[in-house]
Specification:
Blueprint lengths: L16 H9 L10 H17 L4 H6 L6 E2 L5 E2 L1 H7 L5 H4 L2 E5 L9 H15 L3 E8 L2 H4 L12 H13 L22 E11 L4 E4 L13 E5 L1 H5 L17 E5 L3 H9 L1 H18 L2 E4 L10 E3 L7 H11 L7 E6 L8 H18 L6 E4 L5 H11 L3 E3 L13 E5 L9 H8 L3 E5 L13 E4 L2 H13 L7 H7 L1 H13 L11 H45 L14
Parallel strand pairs: 3-4, 3-7, 4-5, 7-8, 8-9, 9-10, 11-12, 11-14, 12-13, 14-15, 15-16
Antiparallel strand pairs: 1-2, 5-6
Helix pairs in contact: 10-11, 12-15, 13-14, 13-16
Amino acid sequence: MHGIDESGGGESVVMGEEDEFYKRCLPSLGHFPRSDASIAVALNELDAMLEAEDGTEEDVSHHSAQHVEKTPSGAQVSTREQVVGSHPVDFALEFPRICIVTTASLPWLTGTAVNPALRGAYLWNQGHHVTLLVPWVKREEQGNLFQKGVEFDSEKDQLEAVRTSLSARVPFDITWGDENDENGSGSPRYHIRFYGGKYAPALGSIIPTQDIQPLVPQDVSCIVLEEPEHLTWYHSGKRWIRAFDSHVPVVGVMHTNYVDYARRMAGDAASVTLKQLNKFLCRQHTHKVIKLSAAVQKLPREEVCFVHGVSEGFLRIGKSVKAGEVVFEKAAYFLGKALWAKGFEELLDKMEAHEYVCAQNGKETIRVDVYGHGKELEEIQNESSTRGLSLNFLGPKDHLSEDMAAYRVFVNPSTSDVVATTSAEALAMGKWLLVPSHPCNAFFADFQNCLVYENDDQFSDMLIHAAHYDPQPLSESEINRLTWECATDRLLLCCSETTTERSKRLGFERVACKTSWLGYNVGYGVYSIVTKAIDSVVGSIQTSQSERVRGRLRPPNKDGLQSHAL
């Protein structure tokens, strides 16, 4: 991470617990020799270190924020990624069949649709049987999700579209599976199945309308719940960690900072309520929760680890930059969905501060091109115009568009994301990345092209610098950290370290969990019954009123006179 220190210049590098922890645990794993002796030595060192750190799951998870160490040569190395990328365990033997459950499906181009589908593809490519469970919504609701004109009459039609879209995003051919071989023991296949869902406009997302657990393969060896809180908001019945064999880890991956969205959109009371509900549900349904960054709320049995990668197309652009095949001809840009909660509030504030700082110090103001569309775009444009900001709104644009490669710096002041996919993509393309000092940017902080600001003056100075000077080419280790292969290894290591043992003690926590889940189910059942009863009564009243109206307004009889009900 490059930063301006308080003395007025120079570079600063953030040191942290996680890399120091793994450095002390497994100092040789950056280039792990595969001999049994070396593995034994490394594992002994790890055991000793864990014992020194008290050996608990919480202790290991505590050392999971992304940080950096300096090598003697001055190169910045993320020890965590090196450990994971060369881990000696054959995860395909440990987890031969993995089931991923997510809350959205391609061709909806949202993170919870794209990233889990890619995760499944790369897991399959590493030798795992994979089943991806995605929601199916009725045709009349699909217009809220997919691009204009994209609709499907059946699950089969959408399945073909999902396969086509996913195949175009990976550099290998996928062997697809069908229902007949889902529980087979042959060569690995990638299965995609649908569960019933319904689009909830108030939430802007899909809610499951059926019990998903029966769709999970019988011989599953690991379950990944993408957005476990979202999947279980309306779930009743068996807890996920009790619905399958005791040795099967159920690992959640937190994608979205719903608590922050609730605060912005509905106020503090809604935010606090949702925070407690999410914590309760994650405790009930997961053995471990992987947070992509520490920007997400505190959760039971959590671990912070960025388990997403970047599509190959962005990395190809970065390699072209490194080879000198791309010329940076444009300055700065921002790309995102046009919603205040998606970073636009922070963008306008920072650009206003930038213009003020430049005016006070006689410096050049940098104009930022803005790409994106959304329901709040007009409001955002009007506010920008009112403030007189140097923002050019240019409409929606694919981040992989050819002309996007010409920008030097991607400006992303958002603090609402858990981890911004666009930030990872920009780094992969070989650009400067300008972001605030915030937990959501911890994974990027030690990349040599990441500029992290603490205040308005630093933002302005870094933006001016990045707009005029070319970034450094990506190092091989940085490219590797951004790949889906390395991200997949990080996920599998987290799953491998998950404790699934069920406590035999009838302790307070165990009793509290069982009692609270029973109470939740009873409450949910009562709520469902009352809601259905009210709906039934309301429906009967409406039907009765309609019948009375039709009775009073029957069509004229043969004599042309209005007939009336008796």
